[in-house]
Every structure is written in structure tokens, then in C-alpha cells.
Amino acid sequence: MPLAPGTSHTSDFAGRSWSEAWTEGRDTPGDCIPPSMVAPPSPPPPPPDPQFVLRGARSAVHALHFCGGAQGQGHPLLLSGSLHGLVHIWSLQTRRVLATLDGHAGKCVTWLQTLPPGPQLLSQGRDLRVHVWDLAEGRNAIVDSVCLESVGFCRGSVLACGPQRWMLAMPGKGGDEVQILEMPSKTSVCSLKPEAEARPGMPMCLQLWQLVTVAIRIPVLIPVPVLIPVPNPVLIPNPTPEPVLADSSPLPLLLAGYEDGSVALWDVSARKVCSRVACHEEPVMGLDFDSQKARGVSGSAEKALAVWSLDEQRALQVHGTHQLTNPGVADVRIRPDHRLLATAGWDHRIRVFHWRTMKPLAVLAFHSAAVHCLAFATDGLLAAGSGDQRISVWSLYPRM
Amino acid sequence: MAVFDTPEEAFGVLRPVCVQLTKAQTVENVERLQAQLQAVSDSALQELQQYILFPLRFTLKTPGPKRERLIQSVVECLTFVLSSTCVKEQELLQELFSELSACLYSPTSQKPAAVSEEMKLAVIRGLSTLMHSAYGDIVLAFYEPSILPRLGFAVSLLLGLAEQEKSKQIKTAALKCLQVLLFQCDCQDHPRSLDELEQKQLGDLFASFLPGISTALTRVITGDFKQGHSIVVTSLKIFYETASFVMADEQLRRVSEVQAKPAVEHRVAELMVHREANWVKNTSDKVTVLIKKIIECVSVHPHWKVRLELIELVKALLLKCSQSLVGSAGPLLKALVSLVNDESPEVQAQCNEVLRHFADEKVVVGSRAIADVLSENLHSLTTSLPRLMNSQDDQGRFSTLSLLLGYLKLLGPKVNFVLNSVAHLQRLSKALTQVLELDVADIKIVEERRWNSDHLSASAETLASQPWSRIQRRYFRFFTDERIFLLLRQVCQLLGFYGNLYLLVDHFMELYRESVAYRKQAAMILNELIVGAAGLEVENLHERHIKTSLEDLREIVTSILEEYISQENWYLVTCIEAEEVGEELTVRQSGLQALTSGAHTRQLLSSPAFSQPSPTICSMNSNIWQICIQLEGVGHFARALGTDFRLLLMSALYPVLEKAGDQTLLISQAATGAMMDICHACGYESLQHLINQNSDYLVNGISLNLRHLSLHPHTPKVLEVMLQNSDASLLPLVADVVQDVLATLDQFYDKRATSFVSVLHALLVALAQWFPDADNLGQLQEQSVGEKESHLSRRPAALEKGLENTTTAEDIEQFVLNYLKEKDVADGNVSDFDSEEEEQSDPPRVNEDDTGPDVEPPLPVQIQIAVDVMERCIHLMSDKNLKIRLKELLPQKSPPKSWYGIDPSLEFLCIFPFAFLPSTCHSW
Q1: Pick from B598, B704, B743: CB nearest A395
Q2: For labeling, which of A228, A287, B314, B902 is most exposed (least CB within 10 Å)?
Q3: For B662-716, how does the pLDDT look when each residue is reduced to its tens digit (9 = 90+)?
Q4: Angle at B210 between CA B208 and CA B211, to 5 degrees
């Protein structure tokens, strides 16, 4: 349609002006933008604004998750978990709360995740419960729950294994274990316990994903253009990522960030650590992994981001670190199209980077308290939840 | 009088009279015969018809000079006989016909004989009666080619009478008689309809007369208006019935190329016409000329019945001769269309009826030819429209626009043929935009101010009480008549209804962006397009036309709305504000370059208003009108979308509410009107309800705009209005936004404190209203009243002090010292409260939950807000500049505004002594 706003912009997306345009995003002096990128001498443009702000969570927001068009409405939803144990379901169309779920006894909700088959929701709370909610047709009922054995801050992770089967990773007992369950049967698959001499401390963040066998990274006949965004949900690596050779079986792997600042790659079926690398001095607060580029990023309590990659021998290697102005990264998220990286800072700011080059693009200053969590929608919308009880929603370079 | 039923009896009576008449042809004898005839029954008369007619015909046929009086009486007698009997023999019919027409024959001249009017009337009646008395079969046989010369004579005779006679009676009678002769009589005596063959025969025959009839009647029709409307009406009727009969597409289709050899003598054969293609073309050309003449004359005829008949003419000709008279289609449609807005309701109704009929029958849509003609007409009209609008007077403009409207109605969905051509669309849009140019020279537009800051609902009520004044009167450069504006709006609505909305909106949006000169007009047109597209106020003539889907409409409205409320189109300079000119203009000039959302990333052009160093009255007027039109548009959009507009409230409500508080009267009126529209469309009971239900959207806008206060200086006003119209249920939202307000205030103590103080005042008043005194606080009430009084008594002193410190530096110093001393005292005395307060002033109160049950519960949110506000007010109190300015602004109000802010907060806080104590100590 000729009237659509922003169409003039889309042509720029892959082209030259896409990086130039970012220079408008400015931060307080001394932040990470190199001098060459600072805007021209003309009066500074006003700082960017969120597209809209969701108010009404009534307490700090600790978990966010986008859910595309569930409940038969066709309009995307945003789920938020609050410090006071409530889960709010927001309609992104009306920007209002559709429903509120109360199932964590007033304890902080730390992780939210919808499951691919049907509108089911997983919510993890600090009341040591992971609830499975049925949200179909307006129902808001807990259909199942799993007990946790650790009171850490570690969020769980799921991986779909089949049409009605999925794997759940969550912190296990003993402080340093990770427990893998098969759902919905709740049978324990295994418990991943680091070797005694490693002493990595508690797991801080987890991410399950499926290995794309190393051999298929060099297929000559199957073109895998890097620029085509694979529809990849934010938290779950795509169950069928990239075209694979027929004989390569899915191999569940787990990335875990630990209290001592290291990131480890676990082979879940073999129950052993494939590789481990020390990324940070402080505990790892969040990590995200791009299975397409075999590259991941992690943030910790210190003022640096670590970018690491996975080579063909499944060995993790630190690629480089990226210094920030202020310490403390609560969450890192790679946009589903693998173009942008966003970090949630304790300094109330959201920082946006070009994921491939790690060039800083913008610093989004809106919140008046630490940003606790981030979420990307499949269409590129970014939501950030903060201690100031607000959720800001940003439209960063909307994609077509 | 005896009645003679049997022929025998009658014969007995009539014989002597007839004999006598044969012998001596005198008027007396004729009259005697007629007197006797009165007594004879119809059946008897029928038997004796031939016998009685004989002496009468004999009298007519007798050679030699005859007295006119005698002939007249004979004709009258004949007429009487014929009226009671039937003519069953063809020969008799023919002979009588010739004899009667011969009565008016004058051998010397072409004109009817110079006889008395009574005579003429008698003959005309005689002919008419004769034709009525003839048996159906005989009549048909009568119209054979051989009769052509005689019939032609009669027809031309009657035409001559109708045209040249003075007497209205004769004219009417002649025309009636002509109708009978041409099978157009509308009386009950001719029920039989003709079959195809008969129609063709008659058509061939009448074709010979068409030129004569049409020209003569045209002369009659275009004659003096004073000749009476009934004559014109009848003439029109004969004209179109004849033309549509002879030129009927249906008949012409069956006419063979080669003329059949007529079985008549040569002289008659020459008169015969063969209606082949060439003839049709020639005739059609000539008839077209006549039709144009007629339309030109009749469409402005003062009598409505004549104009009504014109509609019938158009209908008949277009329905029956759309192919043969294709050249006339343009003028005919134009005539029809220009009558759509006739002053007579009957004509209007009939016109609409016919238009609807055409639409149903697909006369226009079904026939490519007419659609082409129509679009051609439309095109030529749009081409000349700007010129016409310039040169014509209001009446002329009115009829021109009526015509345009009619074309659009008639073309219906086919209007897209015209619109799809770039040239056509451009001409149309150029015409519309030129006509709609507003006169912006009036100084009153800028002058009129809304000085009293009425409560929103009050102004809404005044608006509602006079709904007709809702549409603000506009002054256009090229016309003054309100009806013309109405027509223009209808035109746009029809375009929106039938046209390709995407195409049109795209075009006018382009125009809107292109230049300031067209922006207002384009916005007006866009507004009406949307109203039309939603099917409001549009009468649909084309039943199968599918309206624009709601989905598409919503999409389009969203994009227009986005354009309207974008920075450079919404925030225009409308007045020179003493408080705000200065560095802000330069800030604004830099334009907003928002980085994030798609809506904002479009490259903004700095508005022309900003590029001028000092806006002229004209440009400010123009800006005011533009904003008003856009506001009206928002109202229209709401009406078009109905409850679907609720989704757009998140972007639209804030800007509209902001404009409702604008100082310019027109803008604030328009904005209030738009709010009312939104209210009705979205199903809210009142403006309060609307604001209350959508406070979250407002808060979103407020909080985002507070971040760019220099760009949005009116943001605090919106919050003020919102606070005035909300209730306690919004406390969490308010608490949220108040944090933003206070944070912004902290940044702008020097510049904008005044507007913030009034917001804070509104906030505290609202808080006091929302939480009067809770039940559990009842016992504290008495105690607090006393306390309050003591403070009130102290206030004048402090007030004095406050005022004094604006005058001399010493006083200020004194005051600050006092203040610090008091603060120290307060800190020392009530340290426990103070620490609590400090703890609360930390924005994230995360550890609230972790506090044990033995710790004092945190203050209620509203109290916390009040305390925060108090803290700010304290700073304001010591601000010298602020006070000086406040005094300038409010010379008649003795207490400075910061007191004005603190006053209700004291009232409110006093019911919570434990929070009250430290804050008030701070204030003193």
C-alpha cells in the first residue's frame, strides 16, 4: 500500500544508510559511541522514544515474553512477570492488560515461555514452582507444575523434541547442578553436575538448543544465504534450524552461564561438558546464542559483554569483549533475524548493537530503574521490563 | 324528453329533419337536427349513422362559398354524432378525415384558413372525436402509406395551429388532437398495444413527420414562458414520444437495409422514408440540435411541471434511443443531472427516481457508449470548473457543482474510469482545491482567544446545546454561499464512496505534503472522502456497489491520522506566545529526528511556518485553519470507523486533548467538537468517561512528551485536564506519571515552573477529592482541623515574608537563613520521620517486601505523592525569578502560585499528621 508509513525506510535496511542512521542514537557523554559517530554539530536531536510504554504491572517487571497471536485473536500478546508474582497478559493491539494470572504466591516470576504446541505457558517463580498454564480460549488455569530445587536466579529453558514433547532445563539441587526433565511426563532425563574440580558455582542462565551437525556447515549444494532470517523464536532455538542432511540426528545441547563467570557447553545426551570458557570475572547474568552463526554473547555483573563462538569441534572460544560505560547487564537478547543485539543494563539503559560487527548503535534511555529483562518479538519489536514497574516497547528499524 | 330507443322510431323522427337539411342548408336546420339527435339512443344512432351523416357531409361538400357559421354548426353536429357512435368502415373514416381537415384548408396560403377561433376549435374537436370513434382495426388500416398526404396535411395543420394561434384553448386542443393522431393519446379508449409489425409500420409512417413535428414543437417549447406551462408540457410529451417512437433502437434494429417496394403510387412513395443507417444518423444530428435547444430553454423554465416533464423526456429518450441518439446523451444526462438539486422537491424526487432507475437498468453502466459520454462530460466539466468558479456568480457555481454531483451520482462505481486517468484526476483535484481555497486574511481568527479556562465539560455542553453551530463557518475566497460548500462536501463524499479510495487518498495525501498552499484544501477533501467511504450521508444509487471494507478504511484512516498529528503538521505556530518564543523556536526548527519507530523515521521537513522569522497574521490564520480542519478530520474519522476508532485513540486522543486546551478559540472549539465525535463514535457516555477510560493512552503520551518538553510545551496542560477528569482508580497511573513530571520539573525549574505548578495544584486538588477522609481516619479529623487552623493563621505572616523576599536581597538572605534554621530544627526533632522520607524518595522501593511486619507500613501512595510535591514546592518558594514572573502573570492574585500549590496539599496532608509534620516543617 502506498501510504504505509516507513516504507521509504525499508529500502535502506540492508543498504548503506542503515548504519548511518544509527548515529542519531546518542547517549550521555562518555558512553560507548566512538567520537566519529557522534552526530553533526547541529543541535542534538532529542533522544529516541519508545513506541509505547505499558503501565500497570504494579511492581518491578522481571520476565517478558512475546507470544504471537495466541488465543485465536491473531494479535500478538506480551506476557510479563512481576516481582509480586503476577503474570500479566498484554494485548499489543490495545496496549492493555487482557488477563492477570496469579499462581506464584506473591513471589517473583522470573521466567515466562509459551510452548509451541497450543497456547500453553510456562512460568517460573521464586516460590520454587514452574507452572504450566492453559491459556486456550480464554482459560487461565494451571494444568501442571514442577517443583524446583534451587532458589537461584537462574531461568529455565525449553527445547521442543517432538510434536507434544519438549525438554525442560532448570537449576537442580546442590547449587551447581542443572536438571533436565522431559515434559509433559515430568520424567527426569538427567542431572548435569560439573566436575568436582571445576567449581563453577551456581548456574545463572541456561539455554537449550539443538546442534546442527558440524558437517552441514559446509554444504556445497544447499545454499544457506546468511541474510535470510530464519523464523527463530527468541528463547527456543528453532527445532528445525537450517536445512540439514537427512542423517544428522538432532542433538540437544545446553549452554550454561555460571556464577564464576564461565560459560559451558553441555552435551545433554552424553551428560558431559563439551567445552568451557571463562568469559567474565563476575557471575554470568544472561546469555543468548545465535545457532546460525554459531556465536553467542553473554553479559555479567561487570561492565563488559563477552562474545564467544563455537567452532566445529564444539569448542567455545572467546571472540572478544566489549566494554560498557556502566557495570551490570541483566539480560542479553539477539533479535530473531540475527541482526541486532540488545542488552539490559543496571544503569537503567538498553543498549543496542549490530550483532555481526558489535558496533554500538543506540542507547535507549527511558527507564528510571534497572532494566531486568528483554524480549524480542518475531516481528522485531523489543520489550524491556524494568524495576520502575514499566515495560517499554521499542520499534527498532522495523523489518518488512 | 322522449328517448327513441329503436332505430325505427328514431328514423321516423330524424328523417324529416335530415331531408330538410339536405334541401336547405341552414344553421337552423343543422341545429334542429342536433336537437333531435339528443333524443336518440346511442344504439339507434349507430344504426342510423350513415343516414344522419349524409346530409351533414353533403353540406360540407357542396361547392360554392359557404357561411362559416354553417360549417361550424355542421362540424359540431358531426362531432356529436361521432362521439356517440363508432366508425366501422375504413372508407368512411378516410373520407370524414379528409372532409374535416379540408374545413381549415385555405387554397391560397400554407397557413390555416383565416377563420374564426370557434371554427378552428370545432374542427379540431371533430378530428379528435373522429379518431376516437374509429374501431381499432380500422384505425390501423387507416395508417397505411396511401394516407400519408392527407395525414401529413392534418399534422401540419395542427402544428400550425399549436404554434401560431393566440388562444390557449386552441393550442391545447390542437396538441391533444396531434397526440391522438400520433397514437399518443392517454385516454382509456386505446387499450390495445401494438405488436412489432404494427409498430414498424407506424414508425415508418411517422418518420416522415418527424422533422416537421420536432422543429415545430421546438419552436413552441422554446417560445414565450408566458404561453402557459401545460402547452409546453404537452409539446414536450409529443416531442419525446414521437422521437422515441420513430428513433427507437428496438425498431431500428429490425429495419432492413433495402427499402421494400411500396405498393403505392409514385407521388406518395416519394414522401415515404426508409429508416436506414444514414437516415438515422442525419436525423439524429438534427434532433440533437433541437434537443440542445429545448434543454437550454426548459431546464431553467420557471414552472416545475415543465422541468418535471424534461426529466421524462430524458428518461424516454435515453431508455429507448440510447444508440440512435447517442449524440444527445451528453446534453440529456447533463439536463437530468443538473436537476438533481432542483428547488422543487417533486422534481428532485423524480430526478433521483430516474437516476436510480438508470442505475438499476444499467443504462449508463451497461452501455459503454454512454459511460464514455458521461466521463467525457465530467472531464470537460472538471477542466472548466476552476474557470467557472472564478467567473460565475454563486447561482452559477451552484448549478455547475450540482451538475458535477449529478455526474458522480450517475457514474457511480464507473467514476473510476475517470479517476484512473491521471489527467482526469489531476484536473478534478485541481478544481476542487482551487474552489476550496480559504480566505485567511481575517484578523479575528488569530485574535479570538479563549481566555477563560473553562472546564472541558462546560465547553462541551455549550457545543452540544447548539449542534448546528458545530461546523465552524469558513470563509472561502471564491464563494460565499453555504450551499456551495455543502455541495462540495457531497462531491467529495461521493468520490470517496464510489472511487478507488486508495488512489484518491494517495493523490490527496501527495497534494497535502506537496505544498502549504493546498494543504488545507487537501485535508478538507480527505476528511470528506473518508466520511463518504464509510457510507455516511451518502445515498447509494448503485445497489451492487461494494463499499470499502472496514479493514481497508481503518488502514487508510490510520495513515492519514499519522500524517495529521505528525510533528510538522500538528504543532504549527498559531500565535506569538510571550512566554514561549525565544530559544524554543530554534529548538523546534531543528526538527524532531526520532530514531526508533517507523512512524517517526520519515525525514521531517522543517515546516515553512518555522522558517519564517516572524509568522505573519495570514500564515498564522492559515495554520489555525489547518489545525481546525485536521481536528474536524479526526472527528470524521471517528464517525467513519465507529467503535473501531478506539484502537486509534492511543495515538489520537492525546493530540486532540492538547488542542482542546489551545488558547485560540477556533482550535479549542474544533478540538472539543472532535472529542464529542470521538465520544459518540466510540460509545463513551461523556468526555469525562472518554478521558477516564483512556487515561493510560494519555499517560503514555504525556510521559513521552515530557521527555521533549521544549517540543511539547503544552504537555503539562494535558495532564491537568486529565487529572480534572479522572478518579481514584487511576492512582497508580497518576503516581507513575507524577514521577515523570517531578523529574522533568527538576530539569526545568528556571523556565517552565509556572505550568508545572498549576499541574501540581490540579494534582493535589484531585487527590483531595479522590481521598476525602477515609473512615479509619475519622478520629484524626478533629485533631487535624485544629492543626490546620493554626497553620492557616500562621500563613499570612509567612506569606508576607515570601512576598517581601522578592523585593530585597537582604530579605532573601534572611528567609534562606530562617529556612535553613527551621530545616535543621525539623531534622533534629523528627529524625525518624525524616529518615523514612528519605528512604521513600528512592525511586525503586524494591525492599518494601522484605521489611518485616514490625516495621511501620509504608505511606499510602497518594500521601507519598503529596509529600513529593511538597518537596518541590519548597524549592519553588525560594525561587526569586519565578515569583517575579508569577506576579507579572497574575497581578490580581496576591498569593504567589507556589502557595496556591501548597494550599490544597496542606489541606490534604493534614489528615495524615505523621507525614504532615515533617513536610510542613520543611515548608515553613
Answers
A1: B598
A2: A228
A3: 778 888 888 888 988 899 888 888 888 888 888 888 888 888 888 877 777 778 8
A4: 95
Residues 6+ apart with CB under 8 A from B517: none
In single-letter form, the type of residue at position A101 comes to L
The complex scores an ipTM of: 0.72
Of the pLDDT bands very low, low, confident and very high (cuts 50, 70, 90), residue B914 is: very low
Whether residue A124 lies inside any domain: the answer is no
Provide the residue range defining the domain that includes A171. Answer: 154-225+233-298
A35 CB within 8 Å of a chain B CB = no
Q: How confident is the model at residue B390 (pLDDT cuts 50, 70, 90)?
A: confident
End-to-end CA distance of chain B: 126
CATH code, domain with A280: 2.40.128
Q: Does A8 touch chain B (CB under 8 A)?
A: yes
* Touching B: A residues 194-233, CB under 8 Å: none
Q: Is residue A75 part of a domain?
A: no
Q: Touching check for A395 and chain B: CB below 8 Å? A: yes
What's the pLDDT score for residue B459?
52
Report yes or no on A113 lying in a domain. Answer: no
Q: Does A347 touch chain B (CB under 8 A)?
A: no
Min Cα distance B818 → chain A (Å) is 34
Closest residue on chain B to A2 (Cα): B506
User: Mutation test of the interface with chain A: which of B510, B588, B597, B605, choosing the one with the most A Cβ atoms within 10 A?
Assistant: B597
Q: Which residue of A has its CA nearest to B596?
A: A396
User: Which of A25, A58, A369 minimises the CB distance to B595?
Assistant: A25
pTM: 0.69
Residue A3 to residue B502, Cβ atoms within 8 A: yes
Of B502, B601, B733, the CB nearest to A1: B502
Task: Classify residue A15 as exposed, middle or buried by CB count within 10 Å of its CB (0-12, 13-18, 19+).
Answer: exposed
Cβ distance A6 to B599 less than 8 Å, yes or no, reads: yes
The shortest C-alpha distance from A5 to chain B (Å) reads 6
Please tell me the distance from the alpha carbon of residue A239 to that of residue A236, in angstroms, as a whole number.
8
Structural domains of chain A, count: 1
Assess if residue A280 is contained within a domain.
Answer: yes
